[in-house]
Amino acid sequence: MQDLMQDQVQWDRVLDVCHSLTDRVATQLLAVGNAPAEEKQDGSLVTQFDTWADEQLRTGLQTAFPDHGILSEETHHVFPDQDWCWIIDPIDGTTNFSRGIPLWAISLGLLYRGTPVYGYIYLPPLGDRFHGYWAGTSGLTLPTGAFLNNRPIHTRPDDPSANQFFSLCARSTSILQRPFPCKVRMLGTAAYNLLLVAAGYAVGAVEATPKVWDIAGVWPILQAAGATWTPLDEGDPFPLTVGENYRDRAFPTLITSRADLVDQFRPLVQGVIGGG
Questions:
Q1: Structural domains in the chain?
Q2: Which bin fits 169, alpha (ψ -120 to 50), beta or left (φ > 0)?
Q3: Strand partners for 78
Q4: Which of 2, 13, 30, 57 is nearest to 217 (CA)?
Q5: 209 with 236: CB under 8 angstroms?
Q6: Alpha helices in 65-175 (DSSP H)
Q7: Within 10 Å of residue 17's Cβ, how many Cβ atoms?
Q8: Residue 1 — very low, low, confident or very high, per pLDDT cuts 50/70/90?
Q9: Is the full-model pTM beyond 0.85?
Q10: Rounded (10°) CA dihedral 221, 251, 236, 193
Q11: Per-residue pLDDT tens over the stretch 49-62
């Protein structure tokens, strides 16, 4: 299977499957107005459409790639014992979606031996599709680059300033209790928050409590775009561990557009761990 997945034609097929599958799911989700939501154990919201989209994406990926494992936000939380595994976030930004706010995403990440090597993020209300490849230390031969609507993207080279953006999550607003060097944005979808850096819109972003389905799809895109990924806890989020349940595991994360900005931003955002 590894040899097949290194062939360019096969990677083209991966991209085609992601495009057609997310397009089909998005068509139904875009027809929804306000969606009644329930609160999950971790305090986040879920709707019947999250569950439906999760099932559609799982079934579609399992049909297209029967040898691959699946980990998803709504159903399968234990990392499987398979070289290749998809991680699914059927609606990233469920609170936005449930209120009819047109900013949410469908996120897919493909992992090889526990580390994402391919990501595909579709924001149906915007019509924007991100994808990217990052071989890292996997030994795989992959296509290269990060893309927005099939155009290459890269982080911006600018220094932080009052006219540059930094993206926050809802649980990281405490960092604004002291002066902050950039304008801030808070969008309500973890994937897009982080992808603002990959696309060159922002010089940095922080997510205080993202789960693995929030970050698996964006990991290879950000790496390929030249961003620096800094864990705010003990260590790198990947590789995942076979047999571990990731339902409640958070991965506090700082993203910067340049490696030299980590020392400037990390002291400002480190307090998001534990809400401090």
A1: 2-152 (3.30.540.10), 165-275 (3.40.190.80)
A2: beta
A3: 245
A4: 57
A5: no
A6: 94-98
A7: 17
A8: very low
A9: yes
A10: 30
A11: 888 899 999 999 99
Instruction: Report how far residue 106's alpha carbon sits from residue 173's, in angstroms, rounded to the nearest whole number.
Output: 25
CA–CA dist 43, 46 (Å, integer): 10
- The structure tokens listed for 272 are 């998001």
Closest CA to 237 of 209, 275, 201: 209
Question: Which pLDDT tens digit goes with each residue over 71-101?
Answer: 998 888 899 999 999 999 999 998 898 888 9
Q: Which residue has the tokens 């609507």?
A: 149
Contact indicator for 224, 244 with CB cutoff of 8 Å: no
Q: Tokens representing 224?
A: 């390929």
Cα 177 to Cα 35: distance, rounded to the nearest angstrom = 34
Angle at 39 between CA 166 and CA 36, to 5 degrees: 95
CB neighbourhood size of 200 (10 A): 18
How far apart CA 195 and CA 193 sit, in angstroms, is 6
The answer to whether 63 and 101 have CB atoms below 8 angstroms apart is no
Measure the CA dihedral 257/159/92/120, to 10°: -40
Radius of gyration of the chain (CA): 18
DSSP 64-84: H-TTSEEEESSS--BPPSSSE
Which residue carries 């009644």 as its tokens?
36
Report the Cα–Cα distance between both ends of the chain, in Å, rounded: 46
Question: In this structure, what token pair is assigned to residue 186?
Answer: 């808070």
Which amino acid is present at 90? P
**How far is it, in rounded angstroms, from Cα 257 to Cα 167?**
12
> Can you read off the two tokens belonging to residue 8?
């360019």
